[in-house]
C-alpha cells in the first residue's frame, strides 16, 4: 500500500479529455474489481462501459481522473444511470488497490458528489462491494451516509440434481435466445419488481437492448414459463465460456404465480443448463431484504457470500 501520509496535493484531479482512451477506465475497473472480489470478479470491457454511459454519453464532461504528480492514472469517478435504466444516478468509480488506505477514496467520493451537484442531479447513490471496500464505507459513514440497501452474492458450487421430473401442473416451458413476446416479458419484470428498491419500469426498448447485450457478451438463453401462452415467469441464463461461470442475469415470476413451485422449477432448469455447459460455479445476486428470494435460492443450493455484499448509499 502507498504511504497514507500523503499531502493534500499529492493526487492531481483532472477532467477527462477526448484523447484519453476508455481502455484506461476498463483497466482500472478490472484491477479494483479483482482486488475486491478475487476469483468471483467478472471481467469488465469497453462494451460494458458503453452500456454504463450510453452511446450518447459525454465522458469528457462526466469523468474525473486522478493522477500522481508523475502523471500516472490511479483512479477515476463518473456518473451514470445505466443509459436510463436506473431511477437514480450512480457514482461509478475505481482506484488502484494500493491507494485504498490513502486520502484518495475520500477525494474520489467528494469529487463525485461535487460532480453530481454541478450537473443539478436530484438523486445520486454510490455502492461499495465487499469487505475490502471498507475504506470507502468508512469515508461515507464519516460523512454521515448510511446504507439504504444491501445485496448479497450467492453461489452454487455443489451441483446436485435439483431437477424435478415434472413442472407444476399447467405450466409450459420453453428455452429461447430471446423473449417470444417482449411486452409480456416486460410486464412480468415490472410486476415482479415494482416494490423493489429504486425500481424503474422497463420498456420494451431497454429490454431489447438488454437482451441484445446479453446475446453479444455471453452464451445466452432464457427459460420461459407460461400458462395458456401467457408468460408468468422467466429465468435469464448468461454463460461465460472463458471463466466457465454461469450467471442468472434475470429471474422473475408474476406475484400471482409465486409460491406455486414455478420459481424453484425455473432455477432447477437453470442449474441443469449450466451443468450441461460445464460450469464450475453459478452466480446470482439478490437484495437481502427479499427474504422469500433468499430462502428460495438457499433451498436449491445457493450459499451466501458475505464478503461480496454490495452496500448502496443515498447521497441525495
TrEMBL record:
UniProt entry tagged with the keyword Acyltransferase: yes
CDD domains with a match to the protein in the record: NAT_SF
GO MF entry, a single one: mycothiol synthase activity
Protein's name according to its UniProt entry: Mycothiol acetyltransferase
Residues of the N-acetyltransferase domain: 171-316
Record keyword Transferase present: yes
PROSITE patterns: GNAT
Keywords from the named record: Acyltransferase, Transferase
Top-level taxonomic group: Archaea
Entry's EC annotation: 2.3.1.189
Matches recorded under Pfam families: Acetyltransf_1 (PF00583)
Amino acid at each position: 500500500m502507498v504511504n497514507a501520509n500523503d499531502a493534500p496535493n499529492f493526487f492531481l484531479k483532472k477532467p477527462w479529455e477526448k484523447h484519453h482512451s476508455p481502455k484506461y477506465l476498463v483497466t482500472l475497473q478490472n484491477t479494483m474489481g479483482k482486488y475486491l472480489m478475487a476469483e468471483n470478479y467478472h471481467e469488465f470491457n469497453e462494451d460494458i462501459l458503453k452500456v454504463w454511459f450510453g452511446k450518447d454519453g459525454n465522458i469528457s464532461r462526466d469523468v474525473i481522473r486522478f493522477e500522481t504528480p508523475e502523471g500516472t492514472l490511479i483512479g477515476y469517478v463518473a456518473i451514470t444511470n445505466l443509459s436510463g435504466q436506473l431511477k437514480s444516478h450512480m457514482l461509478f468509480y475505481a482506484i488502484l488497490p494500493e491507494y485504498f488506505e490513502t486520502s484518495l477514496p475520500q477525494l474520489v467520493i467528494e469529487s463525485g458528489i461535487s460532480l453530481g451537484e454541478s450537473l443539478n442531479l436530484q438523486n445520486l447513490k454510490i455502492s461499495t462491494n465487499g469487505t475490502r471496500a471498507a475504506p470507502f464505507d468508512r469515508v461515507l459513514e464519516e460523512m454521515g451516509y448510511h446504507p439504504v440497501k444491501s445485496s448479497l452474492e450467492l453461489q452454487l458450487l455443489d451441483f446436485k440434481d435439483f431437477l424435478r421430473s415434472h413442472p407444476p401442473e399447467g405450466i409450459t416451458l420453453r428455452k429461447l435466445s430471446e423473449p417470444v413476446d417482449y411486452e409480456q416479458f416486460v410486464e412480468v419484470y415490472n410486476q415482479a419488481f415494482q416494490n423493489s428498491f429504486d425500481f424503474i419500469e422497463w420498456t420494451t426498448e431497454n429490454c431489447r437492448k438488454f437482451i441484445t447485450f446479453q446475446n453479444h457478451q455471453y452464451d445466452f438463453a432464457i427459460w420461459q414459463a407460461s400458462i395458456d401462452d401467457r408468460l408468468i415467469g422467466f429465468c435469464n441464463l448468461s454463460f461465460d465460456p472463458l471463466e466457465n461461470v454461469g450467471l442468472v442475469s434475470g429471474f422473475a415470476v408474476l406475484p400471482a404465480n409465486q409460491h406455486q413451485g414455478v420459481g424453484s422449477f425455473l432455477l432447477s432448469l437453470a442449474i441443469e443448463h449450466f451443468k450441461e455447459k460445464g460450469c464450475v460455479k453459478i452466480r446470482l445476486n439478490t437484495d437481502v431484504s427479499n427474504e422469500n428470494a433468499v430462502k428460495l435460492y438457499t433451498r436449491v443450493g445457493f450459499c451466501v457470500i458475505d464478503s461480496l455484499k454490495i452496500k448502496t448509499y443515498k447521497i441525495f
